[in-house]
Amino acid sequence: MSLFGDALAWILDGGHWGGPTGIDTRLWQHLAVTFAAVALAAAVAIPLGVLIGHTGRGRLVVVATAGAVRAVPTLGLLTLLGLWLGIGLTAPLLALVVLAFPSLLAGAYAGVESADRGAVDAARSLGMSEWQLVLRVELPLGAAVVIGGLRAATLQVVATATLAAYLSDTGLGRYLFAGLKSRDYPQMLAGALLVAALALLLDVALAFVQRACRGPAPLAPSDAAPEAAPAKG
Amino acid sequence: MTWLEANRSYVLDMLLQHVQIAVPAVLISIVAAVALGRLAWRWRRVGAVVLGATSLLYSVPALPLLIVIPVVLSIPLRSDLNLIIALALYGTALLAGTALDAFRSVDPRVREAAEALGHSRAGIWWKVDLPLSFPVLLSGIRVITVSTVSLVTIGALVGIQSLGNLLTDGFQRGIHAEIVTGIVLTILVAVVLDVLLVLVGALVTPWRRRTPRARSRRRADDTAAVSA
């Protein structure tokens, strides 16, 4: 158990902060990669999910992609893309975008779909255009579910961004792999603790956002917020 | 294909290793999650705490968990046991909530009727609760089976052998065929186990076959699991 003490000492050691391989730099890299991947995936997945939820067409696509991506080993995707695109950030970034996609798609689709049909019909009969329906009724009502998808995707990506260090000199995963290679358990454990702490913090933060979006309780008992179970990475 | 032919016994070894890690992890998850789900169903307050803790656990990334477990339990980093424990923790975290939903899906009137007929508590559990909640439970088990099989590959990064070795080894030596073989076989293991689960499910819940009404109910349960 004193290993935890060693790992903490490793994290607190001033020499491990600052510079191109410092903890602060790695932390920012990790966050930057995570946000970039989630943002890129969201730019396509959320509009697509909203479209599917609004029109009700293409539902099977959502279910199928969610199931299929869960079965594909993340490491396989990462290494295969790594061989094709070479060492560097492109391959892991692409893999992370692919990973984030299904959760975001499912969240957006389920969120829009979960909006109370009565409210949507009422808004339509008041003369709202389809755009207004989506932006003023369906998305606000389904916001918590959409954020749930975002939360699942972020969690998955921040975890998998650790593996990105296998292919490129990026993120907190570096400490893990460096420690593994040189049998430096404190460094490895320090990396593990930093990644876990970051993931927990992000998850808790997004959980708060999600709760804030939930607003007043819905009239119908439609509390079954469908959060696609994230594939682990 | 030639790579596969030349390395058949190695691939077969890794495949077996993979199954030997995934199957125990799933079995432990099922037992633990059913117990936790039952606990949460009976005592709401305890349940909220337990389910909160499991969802927190689920947000810990896999690779770091593989490094923390050996320190806490003093077991070797490069052991199957390490990976099985990590996977069982995730499986339990993911399945416990579904198990609670499964027990809640049982109509309380059926339970009351069984009680009125003189069934004991244990009898109600084995003959009413478990069979009637089984379809929802099974859909959750299918989800964790697929994700567990895929996650076993991560072990290769710390030196625990599985099909994941084909991924890391193929990457390091630049053999596309090896990586593709690893991916395809991992998916194949997941699909085979999934089919087995569906068959077992059909065998133990014979009342859900045939009638159109059963079919539509089954579809409802499956959708519930996808979104669970």
Strand content of chain B: under 5%
Indicate the multimeric state. heterodimer
The most extensive interface, with participating residues per chain, is: A-B, 50 and 46 residues
Would you tell me the overall average pLDDT of chain B? Answer: 88
Structural class of chain A: mainly alpha
CATH architecture assignment name of chain A: Orthogonal Bundle
CATH class of chain B: Mainly Alpha
Rounded Rg of chain B: 20 Å
Architecture of chain B, CATH level 2?
Orthogonal Bundle
What does this entry look like structurally?
The complex is a heterodimer of chains A (233) and B (228). With 233 residues, chain A is an all-alpha fold. Chain A has one domain (33-215): MetI-like fold (Orthogonal Bundle). Chain A contains nine helices and no strands. Chain A has helices at residues 2-12, 23-55, 59-71, 74-85, 90-114, 117-125, 130-164, 173-181, 185-214. In chain A, α2 crosses α5, α2 (23-55) packs antiparallel against α7 (130-164) and α7 (130-164) runs antiparallel to α9. Chain A starts with a helix and ends in a 19-residue tail after the last helix. The model of chain A is unreliable at 219-228 (pLDDT under 50). Chain B has a single domain, classed as Orthogonal Bundle (MetI-like fold). In chain B, α2 (8-42) crosses α5 (80-104), α5 (80-104) crosses α7 (121-151) and α7 (121-151) crosses α10. Chain B is globular, with a radius of gyration of 20 Å. The interface between A and B is large, with 50 and 46 residues.
